[in-house]
Amino acid sequence: MSLPSSLTKWTPSLVTPPDPLCPIVGIKSPKSLARILGYPLSQLEELCGNIESNYHKKEITKKNGAVRVLSVPSGALRKVQTAILRQLQKHPLHPAAYGAVQRRCHIDNAKRHAAAPYVYCLDFSSFFPSISSNRIYKLLAEQLGCSPPVSNILTKLTTYKYKLPTGSPTSPVLTNILCFPLDNRLNSLACDYGLTYTRFIDDLTFSGRRIPEGFIRKTKEIITSFGLLLNDEKEELFTPYKGKLVTGINVNTNKVRVSRYYKKSVRAQKHQFGLFKDYMTDSEKSKEESRIDGKEQYIRLVQRR
């Protein structure tokens, strides 16, 4: 289904948000929402009625060879979601949240656990798809205090097939706000045991001098009570005599660094490129050189942190 002509070209208007912290909090009128986002209400309503036609599928291959299917917003919907994202990013998050947080990255997340004797890692299972549109509606209506009409519009604009889409720019920030109570409980539990806790989207990490069995049991109980499932295959307890990785970063010492495996893979890629570059087209050589250069820059970036 093609978009109405009124949705093919968007011209955001300049607005003055009523709340300098997070303007979306407490919105009661759909017209106020439209004004804050910078789009006419009629266009938002038309878009809500054409949600499915504004997504496309994209497949990416994960490190283990499995294929992940993303639902990616297109055109007008992506622009509106970006406008929603800009407003939601102003909402305060728990200090333990590091993923999709401005001026924070996975390296900062890993540094919180550098040189810890024990590191315990957990991972949510199918995180975004496990968050239903009903849960997002409740988040907006109850946690953010939006009116039912506003919550309904925002829910339609940020969910796809009754769940959070993997591939939407608003999904990470919505889960960060949603998980504030969870982060609070897990952080309090970690403090009780003298541990450090961080969460990078769906990766949870705890570290300290020891990780008792009782702590692990209580952690899982809290997560289950929050309505989330864990990926048992990614649960791992790193001991003092085992190499430790947190969000892909080596945290064995006070100085974080990329893993040996990553450095080795980059060296192998450079070696292969040297062997076969004479058989590549100029375009292929340029792309491969850019890939290698990007990886080497990433290694230097981690080393500087």
TrEMBL record:
Q: Which PROSITE patterns match?
A: RT_POL (PS50878)
Catalytic activity, per the record?
DNA(n) + a 2'-deoxyribonucleoside 5'-triphosphate = DNA(n+1) + diphosphate
GO terms (molecular function) for this protein are: metal ion binding; RNA binding; RNA-directed DNA polymerase activity
Family annotation (Pfam families): RVT_1
Q: Which InterPro entries match?
A: DNA/RNA_pol_sf, GrpII_Intron_Splice-Mob/Def, Reverse_transcriptase_msDNA, RT_dom
Name a single GO biological process. Answer: defense response to virus
Q: Where is the Reverse transcriptase domain?
A: 41-251
Provide this UniProt record's keywords sorted from A to Z. Antiviral defense, Magnesium, Metal-binding, Nucleotidyltransferase, RNA-directed DNA polymerase, Transferase
Record EC number: 2.7.7.49
Which residue ranges does UniProt annotate as crossing the membrane?
A: none
Family membership, please give it: Belongs to the bacterial reverse transcriptase family.
This protein is called: RNA-directed DNA polymerase
Q: What is the native source organism of this protein?
A: Pseudodesulfovibrio alkaliphilus
Mind giving the lineage of the organism this protein is from? Bacteria, Pseudomonadati, Thermodesulfobacteriota, Desulfovibrionia, Desulfovibrionales
